[in-house]
Design brief:
Largest sheet: 3 strands, antiparallel
Strand order of the largest sheet: 1-2-3
Strand content: 5-15%
Number of strands: 3
Shape: rod-shaped
Mean pLDDT: 78
Radius of gyration: 40 Å
Low-confidence stretches: none
Distance between the termini: 119 Å
């Protein structure tokens, strides 16, 4: 009987070891399965993010293309118009004007070196501002003289009032 008990104990011990091994294998299989599932989801997510990034890059490139084409046409002729108006108002005072894209940056006269806008006198700044407004109106408002004169006169009067208050 002792031998039978011992055999049963040994058998129980073996079965417990088998169960432990099976549990370890099943846990390992489960972990491998989970890891594989996570890898698969991560790959899908990465692919989706890549596709969205490509789409956004295409949209960005197209938007920049459109902006560039619109910008290049927007100021076409504006510089020429501005210089024309400034020459009409200031005579031959400036021999040339340096432009940075759409804004004047330096004014060259025959007597002095280049002057930036900040170094111009108040009267000359007014003249430049009026010439700029005339050029803008001519470009964007299709030569609407009434709007141009009304807009310019109101601006000039308001500037004079502000200067007197200071």
């Amino acid at each position: 009987m002792d031998q039978a008990i011992q055999n049963l104990k040994d058998h129980i011990f073996e079965k417990k070891q088998e169960r432990t091994e099976l549990e370890a294998k099943s846990a390992g299989n489960l972990l491998r399965g989970i890891a594989e599932t996570l890898r698969m989801h991560a790959t899908r997510l990465s692919e989706r993010i890549d596709k969205q990034a490509e789409t956004l890059a295409k949209v960005r490139d197209k938007a920049l293309e459109l902006i560039e084409s619109m910008d290049s046409d927007t100021y076409k002729g504006l510089e020429t118009s501005f210089i024309k108006w400034l020459e009409k108002m200031a005579g031959q005072r400036f021999s040339s004007i340096e432009m940075d894209n759409d804004l004047p940056t330096a004014f060259k006269s025959q007597d002095t070196p280049s002057l930036t806008y900040e170094l111009l006198s108040h009267g000359t700044k007014d003249t430049v501002a009026l010439a700029w407004r005339f050029a803008l109106t001519e470009k964007f408002l299709d030569n609407s003289t009434q709007v141009l004169l009304s807009w310019t006169i109101r601006w000039w009067i308001s500037t004079r009032k502000e200067e007197k208050m200071l």
